[in-house]
Inverse folding.
């Protein structure tokens, strides 16, 4: 049985932003190969972006039909901050942003290791040594698969790259 839930503060705005992002992704995917053929490099990204846009539009309509119920006399902004943007989510989003920015400077290996270890801690695992070991194991596995199996050269980073052994470049 499906029950309808009231609309959360910020839900409709998020759905509209999702549609706008999906349209931007469709535009960028189109510029990859301009739909030259079904086997063109931009076909799959375009299909994904179209799917995302359609489902996003359906969710916009669904969210718009729901009634917004504010709790405890809160404003929309107060409820949004309390329910939708808890501190852990904000910190994790900042960590993702730092990871993306740090990849160019620190390279894939160092940035990914820091991201994995810090994200495990941020998401609740307080076993620091275990987090460090698991991060190293996961990263080593990813590195071996991409380097050995797929021959992908991962970014070395402008700060760390010159000091890495040739095997890790």
């Amino acid at each position: 049985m499906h029950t309808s839930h009231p609309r959360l503060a910020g839900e409709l705005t998020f759905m509209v932003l999702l549609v706008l992002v999906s349209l931007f992704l469709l535009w960028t995917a189109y510029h990859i190969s301009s739909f030259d053929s079904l086997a063109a490099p931009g076909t799959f990204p375009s299909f994904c972006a179209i799917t995302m846009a359609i489902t996003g539009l359906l969710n916009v309509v669904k969210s718009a039909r729901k009634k917004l119920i504010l709790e405890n006399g809160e404003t929309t902004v107060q409820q949004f901050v309390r329910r939708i943007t808890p501190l852990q989510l904000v910190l994790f989003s900042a960590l993702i942003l730092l990871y993306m920015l740090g990849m160019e400077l620190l390279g894939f290996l160092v940035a990914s290791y820091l991201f994995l270890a810090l994200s495990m801690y941020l998401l609740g695992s307080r076993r620091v040594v275990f987090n460090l070991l698991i991060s190293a194991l996961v990263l080593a596995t990813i590195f071996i698969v991409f380097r050995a199996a797929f021959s992908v050269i991962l970014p070395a980073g402008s700060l760390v790259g010159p000091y890495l052994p040739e095997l890790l470049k």
Q: What stands out?
A: The CA atoms of residues 33 and 42 lie 5 Å apart. The mean pLDDT is 89. The first helix runs from residue 11 to 33.
